């Protein structure tokens, strides 16, 4: 069976290419198309002659390619930003991140309690509901060319803030659910390591830029890209060994390289890899979802989706306004980071491993699927959504209306 491994991967890539072409013709985000494609095939799909749509033998390779896609998405996002701006916005990020986590986590706890789950299951459900998908958020920001928007800096900060929360929460939940050590000392150690690791990258970006400029002064594009990718994969892998998400390691490295004089060159060379492997990630994500297991959790997932949409919008609005952003920019935050993904699935699997209710897996899968599809749609339509809500709540007056009012008062 391993003789047909390349053919299996090639078949997956061909299907991805066809779906991406269709999405392009319809001028639609490729993310929901790729997730639905992944769900349509997999272990439950038929084998037609030599074409094996189950992708059982190649699933691990496809999943690994997907992980690479996440690294490139976050690395590229880091390249688009300035460490100086993020350091300057440290207070705003702490405030915004705290507000976002507090509101969404509280709603998660409340929802788990209302729906009648046990205490431990409530903690898992709160984790599933709280954390957004950094991969989907990064892809949407890049696709819609919003990396220069005023709210994007805070969105990036919230993503990093979520990772600190993730490190702490996983330590606590694994201790409670699996019976591993979840003491206060372990939790504090996780927080210190995550914060210290991030701080190290900020220091490198501020102090070591001249050295990096010299080290990366490589004429050959071939050698240059090998060096960059070697550093990227090493840093991402090392991040995981100290319990900091590998994607955050890639993001931090991107932030460091954004300060060098080679940032434009790196960005130009990374884009094709970002797009190629990023598409495989969303296909791989869909491949991990069994559509036949979802029916039992439909209403539970829909209730959580409604709560998340509401909680995200309110959290984004409050966080943005508290940090000085306009109502429009603040509303964009909640509509952009609404997507849920890899962390929600990890939390559900942790609950299953700890012997909790089997309902967690179909609930998480359907919840993630709906928000992974709605997230890019809501982000793309954020302007008309804001205009409708602005007519209802009268948050801000249009510039031309202000001018008319000023002239009338003269």
What can you see in these coordinates?
With 410 residues, the chain is mainly alpha-helical. The protein starts with a helix and ends with a helix. The longest helix is centred in the middle third of the chain and has 26 residues, at 152-177. The protein has 19 helices and two strands. The radius of gyration is 22 Å and the shape is globular. Helix 2 packs parallel to helix 13 (263-287), helix 5 (90-114) crosses helix 8 (152-177) and helix 5 (90-114) runs antiparallel to helix 14. A two-stranded antiparallel ribbon has the order 1-2.
Strands, helices and their partners?
Elements: H1 5-25, H2 30-40, E1 47-48, E2 51-52, H3 59-79, H4 83-88, H5 90-114, H6 119-130, H7 134-143, H8 152-177, H9 184-207, H10 209-215, H11 221-241, H12 246-258, H13 263-287, H14 298-322, H15 327-336, H16 342-353, H17 360-380, H18 382-393, H19 399-409
Helix pairs in contact: 1-2, 2-13, 2-17, 3-7, 3-12, 3-13, 5-6, 5-8, 5-14, 6-8, 6-16, 8-9, 8-16, 9-12, 11-12, 14-15, 14-17, 16-17
